[in-house]
Design a protein that fits this description.
The chain is mainly β and 712 residues long. It has 2 helices and 40 strands.
Amino acid sequence: AVGPGGRVVTLSGERLTAQRVTERFEAGQAVTATYDVSLAPPPSEGGERDDLEIVVTAPPIRRQVVSTEVGADQARRIPGTQGDVLRVVENLPGVGRSAVGSGQLVVWGAAPEDTRVLIDGVPVPRLYHDGGLRSVLPGDLVQSVELAPGGYGAPWGRGIGGVVQATTRPLDGDGVHGALSADLYDAAVNARASLGRGVRIGAGVRRSHLDTLLGAVNDGQSVSSLFPVPRYFDAQARASWDVSRADRVELTGILSRDEIQRSAASPDPFRVTSDTRAVGFERLWLRWRRTLAGGAVLTVTPWFGRDARAETSRVGAVETSLERESFVGGVRAQWQGNVTSILNLSVGADVELNASSLRRRGSIALPAREGDVRAFGQPPPDQVAADNWSTTFVGVAPWLEGELALLPGKLHVTGGVRVDPYVLRVSRRTPLEGDLPALGLLRESFTVEPRLALRWTPFERLSVKVAFGRYAQPPQPEDLSAAFGTPTLGLAQATHALAGVTVRPTRSLSVEVTTFVSWSEGLAVRPPAESPRLAESLAATGEGRAYGAQVLVRQELARGFLGWLSYSVMRSERRASPGDAWRLFDYDQTHVLTALFTWEIGRGFEVGVRFRYATGMPRTPVTGAWFDATRDRWQPTFGAQNADRLPDFIQADARVAKTFRLGSTRLEVSLEVQNVTNRENPEEVVWSADWRRRAYITGLPLLPVLGARWTF
């Protein structure tokens, strides 16, 4: 019942001197305040009584200047997500719409691989399973999810895009609790139990069955050969122990598996394509949290895991395969507390290790990179290569961040710095050549990344914010091949700057407007020469820029109603070298609009609607064709790069749910209809063999998804 903003807490008692303390509350965030009080002894008759000193220790909420956080209970109700909490990220401002089935995150015009995904501060390689239908972490394990598209603080780094942070739900409560759920896509079960003496355990598992259902009604064939049906599996196990009132230890393990296959037939044998991909990862982390005297908090999280990926792509007779296995690990440590009444300090270190082994065979142009001028279905060049290599990355990044509360709490100045040295070893700096031994490479780098943010709240319902920061990102292991990339690639770096204002007309309604700009340099791109020098198939000369504005009108849950309207207008551009002309980024989307609401209409019924609009992604137009007699096929002639666009995307989704109370348990039955208007949204351009006629691959048609969830 406490609304956002400054609220006065009064402490009084028979042997206390009355004190008043102001605490700040923000929607979706919990405030933990500890008041250390020493009672004065009863005064002796006729003696004097001293005033009592009360020490208030309440570390302020640590939030990014621009971020959107959604609690799990609200996110589960959002139409279009089928109850998947983490899929709410697709609907937040600053996030571009990804192509159907890709599950990529395009945040503020950055490449998908530039945005970091963290669970309890532990990095994971992806947020969604293949196909984008489900996230890698079930909603019952999620407490909240937060997106910081840019301008975030010193604790986070090694990425030049945004940061998505998922926080797991504490294993609180006594007895045995859990949930069973199933719908068109998958089935899941999870349970948690209290073992007494502060020990609690939990586990869950989920598996897709969409491929089995479609195989039974479609003779084993996918609904569309161009939209493959994903197969995925994930499992989780957790344990927590309240060692004392000040100490809690949590152990969490998760694993994720994906398999996907697709093929596209063609009368031209050179254009028959197929794609097979298997992706998986595991993570195990231990989080120790201690509340120290004075209210400071110490958190230490050691973690380790493994990532595995195997891909095989074939176009005609040309096949390309890539296999990667990475062993990763690290530790995050942070101390946070009040140093004085106006200064809160955060000190920590972020250590990360990545040891990868890679093997690649086939075309030098598959898979296509951002910036490649190609058309869907176009056969790749005939050049092939092969390479086996390994990389080892070690980074140790200490950071320091302080927050000053000035002008009686109306002005908050947050300044920080992140020092990010790293060592990178590459096993081979030259391509394979006979029996010659490999000549390795060892590189060291050192970056200093300052961060600064200001938040001014002249009135209770009005705040103004600005932020600036520098960010760096190490090269991808796939790009360090001597045959397919460049082993000597260095850091990509970016600068973020933003300004915005937030107005709260009511306690539950907020309007937030943010403008932003980002610059990036040192991006890995293909060099202009058709025959680059040995072991220099990529060059770190690429530059990028993105700028725009975003608006979020958000109604928090009030009287059974919640919803928001998010709109982003932006422009994202790239160029291969400083002297080149700017071109549109492959993932550029000028306009992205999402409007949604959910309403509890009573008697256990709930309805919701979501509407999405997005500008089509850029494509390079085909202006003609010529016959290649040496290869006996037609080759396209291209116009200006990314001068064309796919048609706009428009889709409406609806959801209705009914909750039944069965004793102490609950059963929720929901029906969600995606694309209720059955609009054919183009997702890609396909061409005839002679490049004279074109058509579109369209997204999913009207799709009803019936589901049930029983909680106990």
